[in-house]
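Action item from last week, closing it out:
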Amino acid sequence: MVVDVSAKARVFLLAGQSNMAGAGLYEKLKKAEQKPPEGVKIWHQGQWQQLGPGISANKGRFGPELAFGRAMRNSFPDDAIHLIKTAAGGTSMHKHWKVEGGAMLRRFLTHAHAALRDLEKNKVEYSINGMLWMQGESDAAQGMGAEYEVSLKKLIKEMRREFESSEMPFIMGRILPTFDEPQGNGPMVREALQKTAKDFKNVVCFDTDHFERINKGHYNHRGQIQLGNAFAQHFLKIVQTE
């Protein structure tokens, strides 16, 4: 089994740049979709809070965590779902997320370990079930695609080492073809994401090209629901095939 399903709390790590941070507007969702899913918490401002409107890196906005959290709770109704998300627009793998001292990676690890210590302090039995990754647009736009595959593979290995899970599921959304334009390195980054998924066990890359957008590079509220559901579907495929 990939993950410890005997634990009472399932922890998921979420990281990346703007499409992980999210530009989806709560006000655009249907009322039923706005209702926070029960049993789903997210680490926010140094404490575990109920997932819902305003509990995000951007107030009033949301990323894939909303649909993903609801899908996980529906799939595992007897378990608490805990999400740890660190994301910021414009951040790159070659600078901010690199294993060798990237500032965003350090911030992510600081948040993650603080959240896990809080669970341990409160004697919550938990297991880290997987990591969701939506990033690469900045590296493509900045002409750093040639380095992306090596850096991504280092990141996956480091996350599995850091969280003591040699086969931790790592689910990645493939960046949009917007960055395939002339002088962009979109094709290199897209290929790196896909090749990495083939080279590692329990690593998946899925296509996001058809998800609805607010502009040429960002998903709208409906696209973020699609993104979260896709993360959930691919995680469940990994678990169910083990």
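Closing note: Residues 221-241 form the longest helix (21 residues).
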